Amino acid sequence: MSLSFERLGFAPDFVPYRPALEVQKTVHQQVVAEERANTVLLVEHEPVYTAGRRSSAEEYPADGTEVVEIGRGGKITWHGPGQLVAYPIMRLKTPIDVVKFVRDLEQLVISVVGRFGVEATTVEGRSGAWIPADDRGGDRKISAIGVQVSRRTTMHGIALNCSNDLAPFGDFIPCGISDAGVTSISRELGRNVAPADVVEVMIEEFRRREADLCAVAGIPDNQPPLPWPAVARP
């Protein structure tokens, strides 16, 4: 069965992080059990910081925004309005190569922003997609990537800055990197490009790379799909 996509919510219906995390966990269990096809969840969150496995409490921002500790790699990052977040929940091929999966996601993001006229690249020793130093400034990160693999199946994924306010990144050291900046598609282009403008392009790039990203799900094409778990809202 081919890759499945689910939009959990976009502006003005921003989605709180914790309920979306519960949906991730439910879908992850279903993909592991081969009850659901490999799936990408797409969402625009309410403001939140997430702390990966290498984070320490001393690094947490003190602006009052919620910090959620999660199992992905990396340190602290921010999610919120104007940022497109994609959670690929995929059964990996064997032998499992998590580094390759992250590199593939980086190339996917580079292709996505490239289709909007933004030239991004990778930086040796650093994950994510980057705009290289130029006359407008030094190296600056446009997308953070962090994944967790459990029972051969991925969680967490991509945060792509589209039109978000970059000020929250000044309240902490993004992903533990102190010698580089942060940017967005809108900032690079000088015009507004919202997550809703980018989501279809991202879906197209995931579909184009499906065979490289994940193993074929062992689900008959004629099997009725499972209902989507509801996003619980306060």
UniProtKB/TrEMBL annotation:
UniProt keywords, alphabetically: Acyltransferase, Cytoplasm, Transferase
InterPro entries: aa-tRNA-synth_II/BPL/LPL, BPL_LPL_catalytic, Octanoyltransferase, Octanoyltransferase_CS
Family matches, as CDD domains: LipB (cd16444)
Catalytic residues of the enzyme: C175 (acyl-thioester intermediate)
Xref: Pfam families: LplA-B_cat
Biological process per Gene Ontology, one example term: protein lipoylation
Top EC class, one word: transferase
Catalytic activity: octanoyl-[ACP] + L-lysyl-[protein] = N(6)-octanoyl-L-lysyl-[protein] + holo-[ACP] + H(+)
Coiled coil spans: none
Subcellular location: Cytoplasm
Gene3D superfamilies: Bira Bifunctional Protein, Domain 2
Superkingdom of the source species: Bacteria
BPL/LPL catalytic domain span: 34-214
Cellular component terms (Gene Ontology): cytoplasm
Keyword presence, Magnesium: no
Pathway(s) served: Protein modification; protein lipoylation via endogenous pathway; protein N(6)-(lipoyl)lysine from octanoyl-[acyl-carrier-protein]: step 1/2
GO MF annotation terms: lipoyl(octanoyl) transferase activity
Binding positions for substrate per the UniProt entry: R72, G73, G74, K75, I76, T77, W78, H79, A144, I145, G146, G157, I158, A159
Something else known: In the reaction, the free carboxyl group of octanoic acid is attached via an amide linkage to the epsilon-amino group of a specific lysine residue of lipoyl domains of lipoate-dependent enzymes.
Family from the record: Belongs to the LipB family.
Function (record text): Catalyzes the transfer of endogenously produced octanoic acid from octanoyl-acyl-carrier-protein onto the lipoyl domains of lipoate-dependent enzymes. Lipoyl-ACP can also act as a substrate although octanoyl-ACP is likely to be the physiological substrate.
Protein's name according to its UniProt entry: Octanoyltransferase
